[in-house]
Every structure is written in C-alpha cells, then in structure tokens.
Amino acid sequence: MSVRLIIDPIDFVQNAGIRHGRIPVIDLVRLHDLLFDKEGELIYQISGRLDKNAKPGLQLEVKGKIHLNCQRCLEKLVYEIDLKTFLLLAKNEVELQQVDEDDTIDAILATPELDVINLIEDEVILGLSISSRHADGECNSLKLKSATDNPAGKKQSANPFAVLATLKKTH
C-alpha cells in the first residue's frame, strides 16, 4: 500500500502547495468492484490555488488507464482516465450547501485532514460511466457469436425480413 497523503487544504492553498505522484490501482479499494483486474497506476497532481473570485480551491489532474468490465461482453475494457477538475473549498456545511446550489461549481468541505488518495478515488468513481462497454462491434463475445451463427461463411441477406417476405408470397 502506498503512503497516504494527508493535507490541510486551506493551509495547502495558502502556501500554494503542489504535490504529484503515482497511485497503484490496487490501492484504490473502493474502485475494485468496478474493475476487471487491479493492474495499472494513476498519475496525479494536486495544487492549491485561488479561483477568479479569490476563493480557495484544489486543482486536481489524474491520468492513467484502468481495466473495467464491459457490461455487454463481460471482458476487459481498457478505460483511459484524463481527469481535470477544480474543487472549491467550503469552510463549513452552510457554505457547502450554498455552493451546491450552483451545478457548475464542484465543492468539497475543507476538513483539516483531507486524504488526497481518497479524494482522487472519489473523483475517478464519479467520472466513470454507469454502464461501461466497448464501442459497437468491438466486443469479443459478439464477434464470436456472429462467426458461429454463420459457420460456413454463407452470405447473409441484407434485410432479415426478406425471408418473411418470400414466405408470405408463397403462401
């Protein structure tokens, strides 16, 4: 397990802190149920800065590849993560609720001991699709099924209802 990075986010912003590193996917335990395997790593950078209204926030960038389960064929799906987000720091629950009313702003509560690895894991999970799957025609099981449906390599009719049309004419 990699070393946890704990920061005081307000202090981190005031000191214009920057941290970067690598996180093995195996360390992202809450993500495991969504994964095909636990291979790979994520590269991150987090920096503290003020937004255009001079409010403190964290700029987070995460890149890497993870292997998800394709929901169509249940095989490995290589998923590229390229996450860039700015998280406004709310000093208390009231401020967080006010910020949450604006859907264009992402905010988190500025707790004195913020675990950066958990924050990164949260953002990765939130960025995933509800139903991850290969692009159309890329699933292995669908390719195999179509090959077994037509083992002799016979040319299939362009219109599946053409057979029905011929039956209708003959009867």
From TrEMBL:
Keywords: Ribosome biogenesis. It comes from the Bacteria. One of its GO terms (cellular component) is cytosol. InterPro entries: YceD, YceD_bac. The keyword Ubl conjugation does not apply. One of its GO terms (biological process) is ribosome biogenesis. Belongs to the DUF177 domain family. Plays a role in synthesis, processing and/or stability of 23S rRNA. This is Large ribosomal RNA subunit accumulation protein YceD. It comes from Nitrosomonas ureae. The lineage of its organism: Bacteria, Pseudomonadati, Pseudomonadota, Betaproteobacteria, Nitrosomonadales.
